Amino acid sequence: MPRIALATYDPGDEPHHDRDLPVLVAALTAAGAAAEAVRWDGPGIDWAGFDLVVIRSTWDYSERAAEFTAWTERVGKLTRIANPAAVVRWNADKRYLGDLAAAGVPVVPTLYAAPGDTPALPDDRDFVVKPASGAGARLAARYTPAERDTALRHLARLHELGLTAMVQPYLGGIDVNGERALQFLAGRLLHASRKRAVLTPGTAYDADKVAHPGLEPWTPTPAELSVAERALAAVPDAPELLYARVDLADGDDGLPRLMELELIEPNLFLFLHPRSVDAVADAILAAATAR
To answer: Is the torsion defined by CA of 89, 94, 100, 106 positive or negative?
Structure first.
């Protein structure tokens, strides 16, 4: 009976936000595994006692990125971890978009500003400022050119926190066709979803945001599948990925552009795609028992 840990976060006194976690534990148990949800930062955990540690909903990691990547590397030396620690290290910093762009993947144009840098802000369209290490639209906001001073204060705050900032044009296609999330499992498309715009005009960067508004099932187009497959193929060193989520939106030309490649702790949206539960459980079990 393989032992499998599904790594998650500590919700404290709040309800746990990972709706898929108990469902996945139950499915793995029914498939013959000894599965449990475990806090990634929990004290005294014998990670070597698991056959596989699956990073599932470590949704506080971006606030403690260095600590988290060190944890993945430590666990990766003790047992199997998915996705691999090297992938986590690369994917935890959104400067990976530059690597993908250099490999020919159509990504949202991005400028980076480390502490001390002041990037040129667009003066002809809405734009987005966000940290290079972040999740769930944390510390992200959308601005008009007239809000330049507010955006500069946002940049200054990110730099005060020691964070590298990103500046991207806001893709107007999001307001029309939303963002699409294509989920891959062991290299194959599992299912896809679409959500509406997360960043609404006038919402402060430090305000709470709904991470997946208007979420619904989606059938990806051939163009979307092509971009997703190109992005996955461009991940350095061609690692074996247990799971991946490719987030896309339409560019000004109407063609899909990569917004993010989520290889660490993407929400799988199994609550929206219940038929995918058994497939995910089977893939995790196979990874835990592989020789």
So the answer is: positive
pLDDT digits (tens, 9 = 90+) for 22-75: 999 999 999 999 999 999 999 999 999 999 999 999 999 988 889 999 999 999
Phi-psi region of 238 (alpha: psi -120 to 50; beta: other; left: phi over 0): left
CA angle 203, 200, 226 (to 5 degrees): 135
Amino acid at 187: G
Distances (CA, A) of 112 to 117, 121, 152, 165: 9, 11, 14, 6
Give the integer Cα–Cα distance in Å for 167 and 132. 10
Q: For residues 256 and 51, is the Cβ–Cβ distance under 8 A? A: no
Contact 283, 186 (CB under 8 A): yes
Q: Residue 190's closest CA among 140, 241, 152?
A: 241
Q: What is the mean pLDDT of residues 93-109?
A: 95
Q: What is the pLDDT of residues 269-290, one digit of tens each?
A: 999 999 999 999 999 999 999 8
- Out of 112-116, 179-183, 200-204, the most confident range is 179-183
Name the pLDDT band for 136 (thresholds 50, 70, 90): low
Question: Residue 72: what residue type?
Answer: T
CB-based contacts of 207: which residues, under 8 Å, 6+ apart? none
Q: List the structure tokens of 148.
A: 């330049």
β-strand pairing of 3-8 with 52-57: parallel
What is the phi/psi pair of residue 159, to 5°?
A: -70, -35
Q: Which two tokens stand for residue 236?
A: 């350095």
